[in-house]
Amino acid sequence: MAYSDKISSGEATQINKVFSTNVLGVTNSIIPFVPTMKGNSSGKIVIISSIASFRPIAFHGGYSASKSAVRILADSWRMALKKYKIQLTQFAQDLL
Predict the structure, then answer these.
(1) Residue 70 CB: number of other CB atoms within 10 A?
(2) pLDDT of 6-55, one tens digit each?
(3) Residue 35 belongs to what domain range?
(4) How many domains, the chain?
(5) Is residue 46 part of a domain?
(6) Which candidate in 45, 58, 70, 80 could, as Cys together with 88 as Cys, close a disulfide (CB 3.0–4.6 Å)?
């Protein structure tokens, strides 16, 4: 979900929506399945991200920041889940 930050408006509503969708959407979609994968000692998780996580985009800082948060979560989770034989892959697609 990418929208202009509308930073000059003085309101954070748009950035909050972007973070809610992009960060909380990922965590709320993945975390409930981890205990089952852990119990099975196997699992594969795929997260679709964006190259915006690597570079800022004018007027879309909230989007870039949310995708950076997803990238860091994925990197952290990959390390934490490895001992349970759960694989995590992240694809950073180009801007559409």
Answers:
(1) 22
(2) 777 778 888 899 999 999 999 999 999 999 999 999 999 999 988 888 88
(3) 7-93
(4) 1
(5) yes
(6) 45
- Residue 85 belongs to a domain with what CATH number? 3.40.50.720
The Cα-based distances of 65 to 4, 24, 77, 81, 84 in angstroms read 13, 13, 18, 24, 29
What is the token pair recorded at 95? 């801007």
Q: What is the DSSP letter of 71?
A: H
Would the pTM of this model clear 0.70, i.e. be above it?
A: yes
Give the residue among 36, 65, 34, 39 at the shortest CA–CA distance from 52: 65
31 SS3 class: helix
CB 47 within 8 A of CB 31: no
Helix or strand run (H / E) with residue 62:
helix 61-82
